Fold this sequence. Notes:
Blueprint: E1 28-31, H1 35-43, E2 49-51, E3 55-69, E4 80-93, E5 98-101, H2 107-114, E6 141-143, E7 151-153
Antiparallel strand pairs: 1-5, 1-6, 2-5, 2-7, 3-4
Amino acid sequence: MVEDKVTPVKMEDFGMYAPTRTVKAPRAYLFANEEGVVQKCLQHGIAVEELTSELTTEVECLKITGVTKSKRKFQGHFETKLTGEYSSKEVTFPRGTILIRTAQPLGALVCYLLEPESEDGLVTWNFFDAQLEEGMTFPVCKLMKNTNVSSVLVE
């Protein structure tokens, strides 16, 4: 740094974002116990629950229509992007399924991390890569309505 010398530099401002697509936030997300995903959520301070009994309910699921991998690494990862179509269906989730509610202090972060098309979520950072192929259903389902569930906190 040179004292008393200022060099103006034009920079792009990334402080304002505009969504390319919006989706309705669910009441909770449900998915099979993926240790890496659960650990990452817990590291962020998110409350994670596990079903203590089977649950049959209507959920929204994303059918994957496209999977794109970056051609070069960014921070040690080949970033992944998904596209797809949502549909509602009744699904039976077994005991042990992970439930993460959005009605918690970090609810917005929960959505940001678990939405499949999120720009910087867990899909982008390769947490679900083994389960992502065109035509498959994304492994995290969205519980859209208030539903009674039997669960315990994961610690």
